[in-house]
Predict the structure.
Amino acid sequence: MNLVTEVGFWSEIKLEIIREYASAYSQVLSAQKFPSLYHVYIDAFAGAGFHVSRKTGDWVLGSPLIALETIPPFKEYHFIDLDGGRASLLREAAGRYGSNVWVYEGNANQVLLNDVFPRVRYEDYRRGLCLLDPYGLHYTWEVVSTAGKMRSIELFLNFPVAAMNRTVLLRDPSVADQREIQRMTAFWGDDSWREAAYTTKRSLFGDLEKLENPAMAEAYRRRLQDVAGFNYVSEPLPMRNSKNAPLYYLILASQKPAASAIITDIFHKYRQRRR
Ligand SMILES: C[S@@+](CC[C@H](N)C(=O)[O-])C[C@H]1O[C@@H](n2cnc3c(N)ncnc32)[C@H](O)[C@@H]1O
């Protein structure tokens, strides 16, 4: 496995979106007085900290280094990666930015719940922006709903629709691997993903008909609002491969009305650019 990955056009767009939102978030939180707030950046699937652009061959900063370069800075940074090689490259790169940076090697779900979220309690006047950007169905609903209940943490989520289609949302769901089904249930929070993913209509061949990707992303968006308790959840923004098929959606889940206007603006700009 390569520790440093090559990134395509859409990953570069994703990183630009993260850069813009992190900067706006940090400006708003730094300006807040009475009470003043202590704001934290969390990157749960952080990677090594840098990538190589497929298009130009140049180095591209990854999301954790983008966060470290944000002005005004966050008060603390927490980065997690399961891969020891990536965590140590990131530790080295992040070491140049000062002492308020924690790099954990471990499973993001456990580290978030046990070590990081307890440092960002609402009643301590702390707030956090947490990026969940995995390759597959790797974060759990427990993490997402805990962040929603805490009311101090915003989530920037990668909703990995291509990974779902490949592993569990098959045309014939009965042939899906049991472990993948369990992973999907842990990701979604319960079994209701089955209703969200399939209609009761049958195709000519007798299979249940699968719903389209946007319907799936919208069903998850509603869960973030209605079940996890986020006041504001953005419209999902599809991020595509070179054949224009959605790989994943970006979704912002927040308690703050201000987040709504900011992310709508940013997403709008990138939708226009795609056209
Ligand atoms: C899409 S990459 C992250 C890219 C990064 N957000 C960026 O934009 O620069 C996903 C990372 O998650 C890590 N990973 C996979 N499973 C994990 C888990 N359960 N907990 C923490 N990290 C994990 C992988 O090693 C990989 O570095």
Observations:
- The longest helix spans residues 9-31.
